[in-house]
Amino acid sequence: MLLSCEREPAGHNKMHLPDGFLDAKTALLSSGVAAAGVGLALRQVGASLEPRRMPMLGLGAAFVFAAQMLNFPIAGGTSGHLVGGVLIAILLGPNAAILVMTCVLMVQCLMFADGGLMALGANVFNMGLVNVCGGYFVFRLLQSVFRMGQQRSAVFAAAFAGWFGTVLASIFCAGELALSNTVPWSIALPAMANVHMIIGLGEGLATGLILLAVLRARPELVAVQQAPRLRFGSGAIGYGLLICLGLAVFVAPFACPWPDGLEAFGRRLGLPARSISAPLADYHFPLVGSPIAATAIAGAVGTLLAFVAAYALARVLVPILGPSKKDASAGH
Amino acid sequence: MHQAAPGIKLVAAVLLVTFTALLPRHLTWLYLVPTVILLVLWPVCRMPIIYGLRRLLVAELFIVGIGLLTLLHPTAAPLFLSALVKSNLCVLAMLLLTWTTPFQQVLQQLRRWYFPTVMLSTLALMCRYMPVLGEETRRMTRARASRTFSSKRVVSWQNVALIIGQLFVRSADRAERIYLAMCARGWK
Hints:
Strand order of the largest sheet of chain A: 1-2
Helix content of chain A: over 70%
Order of helices and strands of chain A: HHHEEHHHHHHHHHHH
Distance between the termini of chain B: 37 Å
Structural class of chain A: mainly alpha
Number of helices of chain B: 7
Strand content of chain A: under 5%
Number of strands of chain A: 2
Order of helices and strands of chain B: HHHHHHH
Distance between the termini of chain A: 47 Å
CATH class of chain A: Mainly Alpha
CATH topology of chain A: Arp2/3 complex 21 kDa subunit ARPC3
Largest sheet of chain B: none
Oligomer: heterodimer
Number of strands of chain B: 0
Structural class of chain B: mainly alpha
Radius of gyration of chain B: 22 Å
Number of domains of chain A: 1
Number of domains of chain B: 2
Radius of gyration of chain A: 20 Å
């Protein structure tokens, strides 16, 4: 209980859905996709994890929980804490990270009444599957494309992946809220995506800094170091399919530009179609045609800025601190 | 209530939360059902009032954060109010569950329901080592704070990152020792 008293950070992330905001079909759909993802991760871990790494799953979950207690100061006396999905994916690998994040969310829900019980599936899907897999994929992609010294490319890729994973998860969260008809998509997407494009900067910076700290202290502990090449095994394909399925269910019906598709989708689910499209019709953005287009532009600009920021971070940070001797020995 | 079977409490909490979350999206008399149940259970579970209110207040940050978004919906007021009430009732239900049921009992119950073994052992290890790592984090934070004389934000970000990095290294080493200790006691 001591832990719970101290876990009252000022800047909570909005992605952690409480109960009462999702309707039955969204809760069921997201739980189904999340369960499939966790089942796949369990199979992968059961097939590939050596027994000596088994306790690391539990310790990794405890580590994420303890790391979330530490606050990073932000402007004006507020502070935020790490979510840690992308970080743990880089440190332990994506299969283990999905299980770790699922356990963290379960404990937060069942031990600290933090995050909803009915929304647990949605939270596991957003922060366990989308955040971890999306972030990890971008991390591996960037790390293999940009070769600028081992530590530097790792820090750059981790910083951008941390940002990307946060924003991606927030888009799915917005989709779930919109599909529940709780918040109209034209509000949910800009609000969630724009806020998390800023929150994600902190997550990305923290991910990069922490990964650098681990790489300098004990590079052999980082899972990525042990699997140098990105392979598309059955796991990657399965996760990819699940996330695409989530995209199709939660995001595509709203992002689809043809009103016919939207209405057809709504009718198929037995929804009055106007209830979804009405807020789109009477909401006007001053400069750009629609709020969705504005968000898309903001998203493109934000992605570019985060990319440049992550690159600058890696360039600045690694030379200033100097390449450690361990890097030189591990670099061959 | 503390002696009741954890399985029953767990199922009851799930049912109550599901029922509450699926109530219609405007305030009706149906909302009284979970409210009355929870208000009766609160004293029965002997949860201190101050504790409950404080935990509700913490959860309120999340709830209002997302609740504000619903205000922009065409049918804003009833939706916002009902979502607020629903969320608070669900949080209260979960608070009562966590107050009366230690997580170890939840784990045992999940084991009886054939929950995957890997998840169970991960959850059990996590619960065992959360306080340990929490204490370690506090120790490292205190040590770092007593050696750092700068209040610059850049410095404190680097310090927190270093602490978390160090925490990971220590967790990994601890996992190694736990594995050896488990093997020594005939695990697998």
